[in-house]
Amino acid sequence: MVRSSQEGTAGGGLGTGEQLVTVGAVLLGALSTHATNYLMERSRNRHQLLTRWDDRKVEAYGAYVDAAKARVAHAVRLYEFREHGRHTEWSEQELRADLADAGRTWGSAFERVMLLGGDDAIEAGHDLNALIAEIDWQATGRITGTLAEWRDRNRAAFRAINDFHEAARRDLGIQGSVMGEKHPERDLLLPPVERT
Questions:
Q1: Which of 117, 153, 169, 179 could be joined to 174 by an S-S link, Cβ 3.0–4.6 Å?
Q2: CATH code of the domain containing 115
Q3: What is the pLDDT of residues 21-48, one digit of tens each?
Q4: 94-124, pLDDT tens digit by residue?
Q5: What residues have CB less than 8 Å from 106, skipping those under 6 apart?
Q6: Contacts (Cβ under 8 Å, ≥6 apart) of 170
């Protein structure tokens, strides 16, 4: 017995319109899945890239602060030798060479901040650089100043380091603060006055 094409359709098979709807639904599902996977992968890659750059920024910011503090420490050593005759195992020439090396390291560290840092961190770095330059100049004798001026320059530099920390923390999205009510301003740590 031969069935007609109408009987085959009416007997439970799908018509052409229903088949097209089914194929369309499958294609729409496949495209939706593909688009969702693509967007999720793109978001994941963007997040990994941001995380990688944040890691680099943390390294650059930390290296810059370390280099700035090292430059100040070398300047202090030279200043104390030149101005107060502090005994040291190094000659003035060696102390000057150490300060120059610290300056080069500091300069390279700031270049990384310039490449990776946020605008506020870069500006805070420029402000700190100007203060450290004055410390360097007084230590080497390029500018003169009293002990009180020397200490004021050092105080200003360490306040500027804290300002840089604040700007770097904001750039990295780190909550909290290194200054303010919970963290009062600190002064220089000075040895007790020697009695003669």
A1: 169
A2: 1.20.120
A3: 888 888 888 788 877 876 777 777 666 6
A4: 999 999 999 999 999 999 999 999 999 999 9
A5: 64, 67, 68, 70, 71, 132
A6: 118, 120, 121
